[in-house]
């Protein structure tokens, strides 16, 4: 795996974690 791919994957992981966190927060506030 190239360095560029590694960086991109890391960014995607961070993005998905942030999205999941926001979604969980929304669910909690709705409940």
Description:
The chain is an all-alpha fold and 31 residues long. It has one domain. It contains one helix and no strands. The mean pLDDT is 82.
SSE ordering: H
Which overall shape is indicated by the principal axes computed on the Cα atoms? rod-shaped
Helix content: over 70%
The number of helical segments is 1
Total discrete domains: 1
| Percent in strands | under 5%
Catalogue the unreliable spans: none
Q: What is the chains' assembly state?
A: single chain
- The count of strands amounts to 0
Taking all Cα atoms into account, the compactness measure Rg is 14 Å
Largest sheet: none
Distance between the termini: 43 Å
**Structural class from helices and strands?**
mainly alpha
Task: State the main characteristics.
about 30 residues; mainly alpha; 1 helix; rod-shaped
Write the layout of secondary structure elements.
Layout: H1 3-30
Task: Summarize the model shown.
The chain is an all-alpha fold and 31 residues long. Helices cover 90% and strands 0% of the residues.
